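Duplicate of #3305? Posting structure anyway:
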């Protein structure tokens, strides 16, 4: 079964035969991901999301901000939804073309839809309809079979003789906790216990709805249209026949809406059916009542939302001269409306409201009825009194513009104009011009209080005097209050306890107390300080009418606000967001309101509707413009985080306010935007719990905020692995540095020890020898010859010590680092040791020297080894010729000292007589620098001492 739901459009008109009663509505006609905006069916889940079946196939979810296509790979055919609210949103999906089995039953699971298993464990097929009863049991109908799902999840077939042979058309919940079953033989009612009864016997039944007050409505589809019937106390009454195709019933509170393809019918308790159809420019259809009580309509051109279908709006399309309305008044003839285009009235006849325009009355000013219920108006220089269904004119030349009017205690009216103060009479005569204050150039607002005082405003001044004195014709004095900063007053009135209030066009509301006027603090905090009117309420308190604000308040002079707000009307009740000029409150609570958008009627049931805190859901996680999975938990640093939420309140989105915080223990922050999108560029590293809550009144907030947990990672160099790596590297560097420092300290210590050893060996023993020789010389037993020899020994030893010390100091100087420098120093040392021709001293040195530097230890030890070899040659070899040589040997270098003296045997025997360094010490020094030292005999006699070394002291052996 296909249901083409083409529902209530943005404007709904009322009245049986005439244009009237538009509804303020909002249209959503952009549905992303679809080639069409034609909506086939509509439903709402338990969380508050709206779901739309798209004409041509497909499913979309709407969160008030955007449509999101759902399961596009799974759902491509028509679908519609089961009635009622249950745990799951039930989809009845038509098969693709040519697919066997008929309609299937499915449910939404995450981002996809999955089949619902039937009684035999296989998926449902051949489904005719599905619905939840008030106990949240799911009922499913095939053509001739009916099942319900028990609390244990089992499918229980319901068998009854009344169902035998009947074809089921539709299911609908009833007030007995069971289900209505519409068949081709009538309408059955099944109660909570499973008892089946027939309530209507007809073969034409199409749908049924239980209003809950003892009345049941059903529709019979006939060849030429559909007839609406009421079943009450066992009696069936035909209410209305429509020459149109019936679609479905929608229940909203106690009003049942019957949807046809060319209009809708509202069935209210105690009222005649109200028809809205093509004559009012409204196509028809069926729709959905959401959790907030709004009416949603699926149309061929998008989704239409009517916040409060019981609130009606009249504009120039309904007959008003212009939409902008200024003042209202009620008489037996109806509701009078003063507009910028003239005077008109709304009259009710035959259940419909009609607009009648008084074409000859160009009245744009305040309206007021006197004590006899007669309306007074003004047309240029004529005062108008409504008498016997017509206006009686009283011409007063140069009477000015009517600015204010108020009832007098004697049943007449006070009239203020820009020419002076007038008062009507009780005898149908011309109003009388009275005395006004001498310094008042105009009379704007007038009011007579319960104590008989007449109050009058002129610009920023308010005057008062006894009303009897004003009308007496005798001299009297006006009392004046001048209010700084006030430009013009829009109304003067009094509260139920006799306190005077005055509203100002730019300065809020003022209270008269203790002989002075003072502003009421809360009035200065209104969205607009332009208060256009004050109207005492039948419900108690005072209506405060401002631009975009309509409040009913109670005077609380001792409180900080100065008043208490007891009622606030806005878009939730269907009030247009525009300036509000006047109001009339009927005895049953119905409000007639003059606004810049037209005349608005708000029924009592709409006034009783109050917003409740909306549910907020997280809908998207966007990073740097790219959407991520909603369960994303970690983010890189420096990214722009965008969190999208949906406050599932559609009735009046302009009222939505948001608060958010990024830590569970943080303070709530008011959002500066009504858009449920929060962007956080460059969040610092750390864990976050982003929470968002919403409110429609700024006082009551969502009980459970939407919550998203995520972590922003620090820069890569601040992450654990990077920090760990840096710590390890730093530890390794420090360890290496420590080892290098220790090695350096060890080397320095070794160098100090070596220098100390050199000083001790090379100088200490010589100094000791000098001391001994000096003692011998000083002895009286030594002869002159021996004393001279010992003095020469002392001189030789001192010279040797000087050379040794000079060698040690030279080896430590920076300019001795090269091999060439070492060769030059050794050459100088050899020249001093062998100054004469015998023995002769010569060198065998290269012409080109390497640029590399010798290590300190290498040059020091080579110097001492070579010096010792030269010294031994000079003292012990008895050579005729000594040669110092150097030459490269592969990657190493060779240094040698050659003599032609007595040879190794004698030198070995005299090793003990050598001063300073002996052969073992020479070998140890060579080992310290990784060098190899050899002593070899020359052919023909003599010795060669050879040292093989490297520049860095690490030669391979």
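Output from current build:
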């Amino acid at each position: 079964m296909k249901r083409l739901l083409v529902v209530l459009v943005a404007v709904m008109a009322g009245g049986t035969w005439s244009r009237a009663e538009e509804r303020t509505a909002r249209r959503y006609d952009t549905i992303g991901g679809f080639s069409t905006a034609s909506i086939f069916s509509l439903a709402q889940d338990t969380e508050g999301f709206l779901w739309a079946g798209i004409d041509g196939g497909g499913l979309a979810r709407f969160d008030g901000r955007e449509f999101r296509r759902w399961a596009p790979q799974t759902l491509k055919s028509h679908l519609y939804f089961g009635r009622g609210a249950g745990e799951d949103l039930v989809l009845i999906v038509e098969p693709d073309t040519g697919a066997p089995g008929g309609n299937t039953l499915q449910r939404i699971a995450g981002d996809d839809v999955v089949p619902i298993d039937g009684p035999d464990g296989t998926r449902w097929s051949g489904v005719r309809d599905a619905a939840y009863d008030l106990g949240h049991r799911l009922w499913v109908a095939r053509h001739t079979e009916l099942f319900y799902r028990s609390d244990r999840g089992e499918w229980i077939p319901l068998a009854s003789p009344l169902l035998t042979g009947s074809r089921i058309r539709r299911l609908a919940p009833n007030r007995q906790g069971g289900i209505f079953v519409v068949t081709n033989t009538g309408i059955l009612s099944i109660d909570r216990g499973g008892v089946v009864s027939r309530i209507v016997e007809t073969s034409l039944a199409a749908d049924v709805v239980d209003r809950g007050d003892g009345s049941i409505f059903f529709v019979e589809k006939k060849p030429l249209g559909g007839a609406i019937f009421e079943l009450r106390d066992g009696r069936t009454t035909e209410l209305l026949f429509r020459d149109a195709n019936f679609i479905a019933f929608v229940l909203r509170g106690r009003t049942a809406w019957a949807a046809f393809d060319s209009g809708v019918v509202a069935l209210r308790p105690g009222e005649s059916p109200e028809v809205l159809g093509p004559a009012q420019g409204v196509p028809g259809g069926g729709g959905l009542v959401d959790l907030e009580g709004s009416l949603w309509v699926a149309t061929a051109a998008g989704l239409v939302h009517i916040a409060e279908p019981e609130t009606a709006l009249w504009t120039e399309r309904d007959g008003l001269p212009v939409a902008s309305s200024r003042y209202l008044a009620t008489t037996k003839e109806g509701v009078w409306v003063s507009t910028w285009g003239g005077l008109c009235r709304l009259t009710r006849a035959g259940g419909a409201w009609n607009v009648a325009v008084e074409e000859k009355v160009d009245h744009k000013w305040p309206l007021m009825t006197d004590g006899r219920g007669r309306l007074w108006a003004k047309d240029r220089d004529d005062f108008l009194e409504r008498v016997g269904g017509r206006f009686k004119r009283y011409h007063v030349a140069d009477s000015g513009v009517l600015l204010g009017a108020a009832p007098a205690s004697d049943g007449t009216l006070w009239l203020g104009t820009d020419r002076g103060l007038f008062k009507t009479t009780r005898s149908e005569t011309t109003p009388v011009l009275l005395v006004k204050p001498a310094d008042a150039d105009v009379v704007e607002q007038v009011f007579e209080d319960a104590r008989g005082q007449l109050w009058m405003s002129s610009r920023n001044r308010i005057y008062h005097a006894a009303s009897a004195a004003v009308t007496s014709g005798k001299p009297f004095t006006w009392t004046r209050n001048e209010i700084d900063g006030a430009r013009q007053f829009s109304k003067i009135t009094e509260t139920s306890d006799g306190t005077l209030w005055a509203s100002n066009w730019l300065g809020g509301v003022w209270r008269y107390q203790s002989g002075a006027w003072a502003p009421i603090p809360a009035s200065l905090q209104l969205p607009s300080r332009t208060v256009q009117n004050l109207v005492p309420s039948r419900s108690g308190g005072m209506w405060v009418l401002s631009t975009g604000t309509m409040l009913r308040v109670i005077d609380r002079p001792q409180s900080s606000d100065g008043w208490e707000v007891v009622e606030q009307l806005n878009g939730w009740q269907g009030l247009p967001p525009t300036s509000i000029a006047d109001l009339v409150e009927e005895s049953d609570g119905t409000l007639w309101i003059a606004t810049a958008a037209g005349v608005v009627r708000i029924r009592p049931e709409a006034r009783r509707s109050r917003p409740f805190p909306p549910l907020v859901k997280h809908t998207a996680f966007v990073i740097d413009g790219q959407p991520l999975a909603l369960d994303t938990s970690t983010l890189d640093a420096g990214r722009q985080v965008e969190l999208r939420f949906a406050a599932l309140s559609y009735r009046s989105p302009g009222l939505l306010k948001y608060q958010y915080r990024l830590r569970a223990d943080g303070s709530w922050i008011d959002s500066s935007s009504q858009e449920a999108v929060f962007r956080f560029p460059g969040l610092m590293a750390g864990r976050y719990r982003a929470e968002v809550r919403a409110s429609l009144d700024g006082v009551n907030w969502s009980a459970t905020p939407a919550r998203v947990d995520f972590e922003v990672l620090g820069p890569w160099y601040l992450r654990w692995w990077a920090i760990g790596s840096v710590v390890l590297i730093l530890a390794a560097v420090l360890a290496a540095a420590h080892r290098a420092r220790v090695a350096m300290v060890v080397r320095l210590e070794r160098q100090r020890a070596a220098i100390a050893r050199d000083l001790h060996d090379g100088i200490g023993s010589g100094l000791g020898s000098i001391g001994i020789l000096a003692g011998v010389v000083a002895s009286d037993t030594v002869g002159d010859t021996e004393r001279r020899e010992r003095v020469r020994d002392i001189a030789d030893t001192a010279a040797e010590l000087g050379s040794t010390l000079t060698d040690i100091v030279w080896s430590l100087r920076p300019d001795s680092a090269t091999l060439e420098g070492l060769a030059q120093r050794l050459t100088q040392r050899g020249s001093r040791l062998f100054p004469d021709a015998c023995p002769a001293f010569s060198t065998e040195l290269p012409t080109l020297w390497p640029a590399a530097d010798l290590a300190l230890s290498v040059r020091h030890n080579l110097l001492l080894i070579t010096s010792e070899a030269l010294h031994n040659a000079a003292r012990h070899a008895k050579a005729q010729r000594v040669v110092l040589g150097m030459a490269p040997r592969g990657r190493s270098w060779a240094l040698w000292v050659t003599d032609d003296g007595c040879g190794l045997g004698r030198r070995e025997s005299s090793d003990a007589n050598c001063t300073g360094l002996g052969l073992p010490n020479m070998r140890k020094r060579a080992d310290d620098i990784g060098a190899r030292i050899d002593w070899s005999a020359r052919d023909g006699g003599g010795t060669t001492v050879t040292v093989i070394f490297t520049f860095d002291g690490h030669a391979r052996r």
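Confirmed duplicate; merging threads. Residues 720-778 form the longest helix (59 residues). The chain is about 15% helix and 40% strand.
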